[in-house]
Amino acid sequence: MSETSRTEVLREVAERIDRLRHGHPVRVAIDGRTASGKTTLADELAGLLVGLGRPVIRTSIDGFHRPRVERYARGRHSPEGYYHDARDLPAVVTLLLAPLGPRGDGTYRTASFDLDADAPIAQEPRRAAEDAILIVDGTFLQRSELSDHWDATLFVRTSVETAEARGLGRDRDRLGGEAAARDLYAGRYRPAYVLYESLCDPEAKSDAIIDNDDLAFPRLYLREGGRLA
What we know:
The protein is an alpha/beta fold. Helices cover 39% and strands 17% of the residues. It has a single domain, classed as Rossmann fold, CATH 3.40.50. It is globular, with a radius of gyration of 17 Å.
């Protein structure tokens, strides 16, 4: 059997998302380990959905960080710090997810914090169309604080080795060189994801999984009874 191309796989996922109608914007989580390819995949899906005629709201969980002093309170290499302290989850719910949900007024914000400036931002609110689709990429999106606010969850699966190779290529300069980046992946990011798996079992709870080790030929798995099945 021939392999299915990336374009074909993502088109199928986009068409499944497009069929979701709830009377409020559809809130889609693109979850997975650090450097699994979530952001690229989310951008690709957003483009396909716009092509299908849907208004798209595109953002990342990284727009909702907490201040550096809080993120690193347990230490720069602490996996518990990365898991528990990195993001302002109440802000994600209050400013973004709840307003777009069934009891929301459709007025939302896509970020609360400027990571580079290490400072909060006061973003002007926007009004979502009823048929809009929100696509949010990030790690730990199926934590209990967020899980009830998604209308569909897509998990981007990669092996540890593949994700870290991609991440080191992407992050080595930003994190202070390859050695420093390797230390952070080994000491902070990798064990934080193990903690997430143990607490939330995110892959098993997702509506669909894209195995993204082979970027040209990803594989799609739909969970039986899931919202994208």
